[in-house]
Design goal:
The chain has 304 residues and is α+β, with helices and mostly antiparallel strands. The chain folds into 2 domains: 89 residues, Helix Hairpins (Orthogonal Bundle), CATH 1.10.287; 196 residues, Histidine kinase-like ATPase, C-terminal domain (Heat Shock Protein 90). It has 8 helices and 9 strands. It starts with a helix and ends with a helix.
């Protein structure tokens, strides 16, 4: 039943795209569908953003007009104005996410330490995992070579993968985040595995497609964003079976360029990683409880 609902959901998304864009999507490959999706997101975001700006201006003007009202009426209206401003801000952030998903992205490569990024993500999400009885275990060997990556986007990719595992397990389980380097292959491997139900073969062909989800309240964008980030870095993401049951997602990224070498320029759709990105502090900065709650809610909505 769940699988049928998921297939109907995916088919509905494709039909909506076809209706809006006037093209038969069955003839396109997944990559072309993603480009069409980006066009739709950009169009939708711009169409909604204009009236939002107008609403914000007129709410401000209305508040100025209300300043001459009686104190009792002002006190009554203040809370309602706060709700209106809050909802307008929420919609603006949502539109910013859509535009980030649709826009051509640039990757700001830096030479970073994988241990710091992985440690930060595990610290950020450990309270959420613990609340569900899930053990989150990090394994990073010493002496790893530096990694060439965009630290903000890499954090986002790992956050999405760990949240995906938390949601797959639901209650009482284990998630392992492992890192290894293969200098001979010039690659870094970041592996997030869990002892959840795993991913069946029929779902593996579509799991990285936008809007593919098996969760009733999932958006189906979490793993797609991970794939976009990996591709923009010149890497890839793949799914494997976990020994003993469950699933493992492996993110492969290039090592940092050696002395005298310049990293290859990267293009492609990964600015989704910055969509609605809250202030999560500098490298290795401990997250506050407020930051954890905000970041978890943002990514819970993305992941599917």
């Amino acid at each position: 039943m769940a699988g049928g609902a998921k297939r109907c959901h995916a088919a509905g998304v494709e039909k909506a795209l076809a209706d809006v864009l006037g093209q038969d999507l069955t003839k396109f490959a997944a990559e072309e569908k993603q480009r069409l999706l980006s066009r739709l997101l950009a169009r939708l975001a711009h169409e909604i953003r204009n009236p939002l700006s107008s609403l914000a201006i007129h709410v401000q003007l209305l508040e100025e007009d209300m300043a001459q009202a009686s104190p009792a009426l002002m006190a009554k209206a203040a809370g309602r104005f706060e709700i209106i401003r809050s909802e307008l801000l929420r919609l603006e952030n949502l539109m910013r996410q859509f535009l980030s998903l649709a826009a051509p992205s640039s990757v700001h490569l830096q030479t970073i330490e994988a241990a710091e990024v992985v440690g930060y993500v595990c610290e950020l999400l450990r309270p959420e995992a613990a609340a569900r009885g899930i053990e989150l275990v990090m394994s990073v060997p010493e002496g790893l070579p530096p990694l060439s990556a965009d630290p903000v986007q890499l954090k986002q990719a790992l956050i999405n993968l760990v949240i995906n595992s938390i949601q797959a397990i639901e209650r009482n389980g284990r998630i392992d985040v492992d890192v290894r380097a293969d200098p001979a292959a010039g690659a870094f491997f970041l592996r997030v595995s869990d002892n959840g139900p795993g991913v069946s073969g029929e779902k593996r062909t579509a799991i990285f497609e936008p809007f593919f989800t098996t969760k009733p309240d999932g958006s189906g964008l979490g793993l797609w964003i991970v794939q976009q980030i990996a591709t923009a870095h010149g890497g890839l993401v793949a799914i494997e079976d976990r020994p003993g049951g469950g699933a493992a997602f492996v993110l492969r990224l290039p090592l940092a360029a050696g002395p005298g070498e310049a990293p290859a320029p990267q293009d492609g759709g990964a600015d989704a990683a910055r969509a609605g990105e809250p202030d999560i502090g500098g490298e290795g900065a401990p997250p506050s409880k407020k930051t954890v709650a905000r970041h978890d809610e943002t990514n819970r909505q993305q992941n599917g």
